[in-house]
Design brief:
By secondary structure, this protein is mainly α. The chain is built from eleven helices and three strands. The protein has a single domain, classed as Hypothetical protein, domain 2 (Endonuclease III, domain 1, Orthogonal Bundle), CATH 1.10.340.
Amino acid sequence: MTKPTNRCAWGTTDPQMIEYHDTEWGVPVHDDRKLFEFLVLDAFQAGVSWAIVLHKRENFRRAFHNFNARKVAKYGAKETKRLLADAGIIRNHLKIAATINNARRFLEIQKEFGSFDKYIWSFVGGKPIVHKFKTLKQIPATSKESDAMSEDLKARGFKFVGSTICYAFMQAAGLVNDHTTRCFRYRQVNRSIGRSGNRSTN
């Protein structure tokens, strides 16, 4: 099979980054476990490259019980010590503590809204935002939606949920399609969304 030649510039060299770009990035996610996974990984991305986090993804899955929020919410001193000793993940005490805290807040949202999915997608009106950026330089680090998401998550007690992290989460979970228009995935993702199920912007 012929490999696509036009990709977003960030997904063209590292094999894992290519795989992630070609199969996951920008695809709408509505599974709560998967949404929690991206919430955790994007928090750990703060201050480091996404490639570093991606290369440790399987280790994170193992370390955090496959991103089962109910199990992570029960972590205490013993589990924190285990995680701090785990060389397979990013051993940052603040981020580990934030993940445990966020799992508890995540469960609170599930209880209030019925699912985290219903809550988090409300920030984009339930439909992915489809941008039409031609180059990476045009892609913003934040948006009014990520600002609102960050503000509300912080008010609910979440940690490591600044607007930049929230926007990265939106990109990962498909709340926005930020593939550049020349990327082969731009049209593929749009087709998977369905023309009636997105909000186009310039």
